[in-house]
Amino acid sequence: MLYPVQNDKRNRLDLSGIWDFRTDPDHVGEAEGWSRGLSGEILPMAVPGSWNEQYADLFNYLDLSWYVRRTYVPSAWQGQRVMLRVGSAPYYAEVYVNGQKVGAHEGGHLPFEFDITDQVKWDEENTVAVSVENNLSPQRVPSGDMDSAIGAFASFPKTTYDFFPFAGLHRPVWLYSVPERHIRDVRVVTDLQGTDGVVRVTVHADAETGRLDLGDVGAHLTFKEGVAEAELRVLGARLWSDKDPYLYDLHVRTEGDHYSLKVGIRTVAVEGGKILLNGEPVQLNGFGRHEDFIASGKGLNLPLLVKDYQLMRWTGANAYRTSHYPYSEEEMMLADQEGFLIIDEIPAVSLNFENDENIAARLRMCQQQIEELIARDKNHPSVVMWCVANEPMPGNLKLAGAGTKEDYQDDPTAEKGEVFLNTLVRQAKDLDPTRPVTVVGLMGGPTAWLAETDVICINRYWGWYILGGQLDEARAGLSAELDRLWEQFGKPIIMTEFGADTMAGMHGQPPVMWTEEYQADYIRFHLEEAGKRDYVAGMQVWNFADFAAVQSIMRVGGLNMKGVFTRQRTPKMAAHVLREFWTKGK
Ligand code: GCB
What we know:
The protein has eight helices and 30 strands.
């Protein structure tokens, strides 16, 4: 799937703005023809945006809702195929044009589109309607409405994770047009030979011939059954990296169509305890994050993106993980431009393996999400790794355990989880053999679940969920565990989460939990221990900023406060500690 562009052959019309909105808790909208227009209690609702943040009354509402907008389609588009594209609509959406259903999509955070050429009216306004619901269910990914989350983790809404399950049209809705005979897909894989960059391009198009141009290098394309391949050699290429994120413009032209995209020439590899970018060891230092902000919720918020990148750079970070779902395409493009190294994650957070019917449903959804994510993000130089699951959960978790086979010998979910996760890892490797694949492991979870991954990614809360308040003991526990994992796997280790909830403005001497001093000391000892170990290939703090959480006794004021910035983006003391470590010598 290609990101829609505006150029000499293609058109794009952004339908972002204020849409008509109405909740449909009784699910009568379809029968009553709401797809042709809403009546009754219509609310103005901003798109992109989460409805939960825009109206206090809708904060906890996750059920069916309708968005409607009217638009002309420019007459200049006649003769082209007209597409309707939705950037993200968690979780299940149905799309209508002029009252006719054109398609449906399941799963949030990834785009989907339909060819609506036959539905378009050229001389009058068209009605676009999208119904969306984000009901929590054990058969969805991520899952919810399960009884497994009890005790301290019981939350409202009843999720299996702690971020708030925002709902709505989170990314722009676009109309776009392409020539009748058009370019359907472009795949770019880059390699290095000496100082030359090799750019292999595969184009899928309804065409006989075409052309590639990248700077002053070009190639002719000859299509066979809709596919053409060519290799471009860039002599003395300027490589893409976190330090110099240089991008070339690649133009693909066929008889009737034109598509262009940015290309970063770079390689990623794993060797022993190192991750190599262009053959040189690189550290992935930064954060786990969330798409989250006041008023916009999980809605695309461009000024926030720019600000967040600037703040991450200020700390010295060069990497982050799209915890716990794919982020917007605009975010990925900014990462290409700004030189961030991304671990790109599907929405598989807190999978469990306890009910065969649910497991089968989740596996299907994870496989769909991997396919859609790789189709969407495959050409971004910033994406250096795929992550197919965050913290899959064994039935009988040994929180502070070593996660050995013996620890889990009586737990049937250990085996089921292994089969499930290995299936996902292999799928991602088959779809994209050019990038490492990982699973982010839960503290105490079975380490066997990580065996097929290329990089050992671990979330650990030494000094928070265990040994809270005891930083010296926590440091010893962390050190021993890191060395044990290195011995077991001999692969690079990234700490993809470590963090301490911290109430901004709360101070203490001695530094006790929740104070800024505690978080600063906690992060300092982690970075010190990581710095002593060559095989640690990155430290990613949980979290970049405080974020909206489900309500529970674990989360003060509805926030997870492990951010080194507040939700409003003011730094806590810990942000300065990161800056001290990560900008040293720069
Ligand atoms: C985790 C999860 C993350 C939570 C975090 C926490 O392990 O991956 O989603 O927010 O812990 O703060 O508890």
